[in-house]
Design a protein that fits this description.
It is a single chain. The chain is mainly α. It has one domain: Winged helix-like DNA-binding domain superfamily/Winged helix DNA-binding domain (Arc Repressor Mutant, subunit A). Helix content is 54%, strand content 11%. A three-stranded antiparallel beta sheet has the order 1-3-2. The radius of gyration is 20 Å and the shape is elongated.
């Protein structure tokens, strides 16, 4: 499996820092009140961390296309073991990326809301734009 490493990015390290330290005090002061709180940044990082896994992304994509599916359908569709799918769905549910609906002995999963669908679509648009 290929993983992205910062060492392999084609951007020279010297472009990441200023040659001369300079702070625009007015700009910094104007931005400070709206800084992203650490707790929100941490929660968002957890969500993006969950979205960094190809299996979880494939689960979310299947749910986005189908509307809702039970675990057995997801296993068959993605050719995965039920224990693996259940584990991944439990994590996605804990982060409120998916929700459940019980129908008798079956549990159906769907995306939690339109925000999740938009995250998935925006990410896919960006990936597909790169390959053009």
């Amino acid at each position: 499996m290929n993983t992205l490493s910062y060492d392999t990015l084609a951007v020279p390290a010297e472009t990441d820092i200023c040659d001369v330290p300079s702070i625009d005090e007015n700009r910094v002061a104007a931005l400070r009140p709206d800084n992203l709180p650490f707790a929100e940044a941490s929660r968002l990082g957890e969500i993006f961390g969950a979205l960094s896994d190809p299996t979880r992304l494939r689960l979310l994509d299947a749910l986005a296309r189908a509307g809702e599916l039970c675990v057995c359908d997801l296993c068959a569709l993605l050719n995965l073991r039920q224990s693996n799918v259940s584990h991944q769905l439990r994590l996605l549910r804990a982060l409120r990326l998916v929700k459940t609906r019980r129908a008798g002995r079956l549990v159906f999963y769907s995306l939690d809301d339109d925000h999740v669908l938009r995250l998935l679509h925006v990410g896919l648009d960006h990936v597909r734009e790169e390959s053009c």
